[in-house]
Amino acid sequence: MSEDLFTVERVASRLDVHPKTVLRFIRDGRLRATRIGKAYRILRSDLESFAGVTTGAAAARQPTRVTAIVDAPDVSMDVSRRIASTLQAALISPLAAPEPIQLTTAYDPEQGQLKVVIIASPLDTAALLRTLHGLLEAYR
Questions:
Q1: Quick check: 109 and 77 in contact, CB under 8 A?
Q2: What is the DSSP pairing of strand 34-36 with strand 39-43?
Q3: Which value, to the nearest 10 degrees, does the dihedral of the CA atoms of residues 12, 94, 106, 20 take?
Q4: Domain ranges, ordered by start, for the chain
Q5: DSSP letters of 14-28?
Q6: CA nearest 90: which of 106, 101, 74, 75?
């Protein structure tokens, strides 16, 4: 069974807010969305959950999510870019999971430290952590 996807503009219209407000909700993590190219798409169930509508599948579906923060010391800027690119590529592969995954990377050049934040299902988080571990070992 497929589920309806909405654009940011359509969600803004349904919520009677400006599209930039919807983008802020997404960036703040208050509204789940999937990035496709340069645009976002929002599942109907995520919109209903955000808006407080509790109907059928949307009310029953509350997946378990894990937040993992990894601090990797002694990483060069070049290596941090390669790792970030590889992890992002893993998210858009044909084998990517259907559940939304949030992945953020940040590099501190003064400390030579890479920070990776993963918010996903437990299995997806474990897979990304294994991939990150392998990348860190390969580049050291």
A1: yes
A2: antiparallel
A3: -10
A4: 5-60, 66-139
A5: HHTS-HHHHHHHHHT
A6: 101
* Model pLDDT for residues 66-121, shown as the tens digit of each residue: 999 999 999 999 999 999 999 988 887 655 556 788 999 999 999 999 999 999 88
Class of domain 66-139 as given by CATH: alpha beta
Mention the CATH class of domain 5-60: mainly alpha
Cα dihedral value 62, 63, 64, 65, nearest 10: -110
Q: Do domains 5-60 and 66-139 have the same CATH topology?
A: no
Contacts for 64 with CB less than 8 Å, ≥ 6 apart: 121, 122
Q: Kindly report the pTM of this predicted structure.
A: 0.56
Structure tokens at 90: 């893993």
Q: Rounded to the nearest 10 degrees, what angle do helices 44-51 and 8-15 cross at?
A: 30
Residue predicted with more confidence, 61 or 44: 44
Torsion sign across C-alpha atoms 118, 119, 120, 125: positive
